[in-house]
Amino acid sequence: MSQPLEFDPIERAGQLWTRTWPDEPPEVYDAMRAVTSIMRAHQILLAELDNMLRPHGITFSRYEALVLLVHSRAGALPLSKIGERLQVHATSVTNVVDRLEAAGLVRREPNPRDGRGTLAVITDDGRAVAAKATEQLNGARFGLAALDGAELAQVFAVLRTLRVGAGDFATQEAETQDVETHATVSRAAG
């Protein structure tokens, strides 16, 4: 990692933003800082998580696929279901499964329920890698050790609201869980 900057470039960009567009409401300034911070945090976390997972021979996207298979009833899912649950394009799923298969962590099998479909099936080696990687990620709090429990709950709640607003998942479930999340955040902050 390179040396840290001596200033916050996102804050600096925000100052320049308000100078360049002084007639915009403060929410625009805050939105620019927030989205830029989210994008930078994504870069930081993905690099850190991939670095932690490198000794296991996987990336975070491959880890997500392995864990999804670990949690499935039979340790197998159709490739289309993996894409749906991970919310990624079919091409990305194919690439992830190709790499996991080449590493011996999953194997492909014909889907007995769909003659044209293919299942990704986790192997014993895949389960072992997923378990070791999960232990390491849990120990590092998935790269978020700088945040305490209340802050983690707040980040999740705020980003969940953003996801619901974007139609990321069914809102009936979201409304029920939002009440539960709010209660959890309130207790944690309280």
Walk me through the structure:
The chain has 190 residues and is mainly alpha-helical. Among the domains are: 58-140, Orthogonal Bundle (Arc Repressor Mutant, subunit A); 147-190, no CATH class. 66% of the residues lie in helices and 7% in strands. It has a three-stranded antiparallel beta sheet with strand order 1-3-2. A hairpin with a 7-residue loop joins strand 2 (106-110) and strand 3 (118-122). Helix 1 runs antiparallel to helix 2, helix 3 (60-71) crosses helix 5 and helix 4 (79-86) crosses helix 5. The chain is elongated and about 60 Å long. Residues 185-190 have low confidence and may be disordered.
Oligomeric grouping of the chains: single chain
Structural class: mainly alpha
Strand order of the largest sheet: 1-3-2
State the shape: elongated
Spans of at least 5 consecutive residues whose pLDDT stays below 50 are 185-190
- The total strand number stands at 3
Q: Tally the helices: what do you get?
A: 8
CATH superfamily of the domain at 58-140: Winged helix-like DNA-binding domain superfamily/Winged helix DNA-binding domain
The biggest sheet, with number of strands, parallel, antiparallel or mixed sense and barrel status, is: 3 strands, antiparallel
Strand residue content: 5-15%
How far apart the termini lie comes to 37 Å
Report helical residue fraction: 55-70%
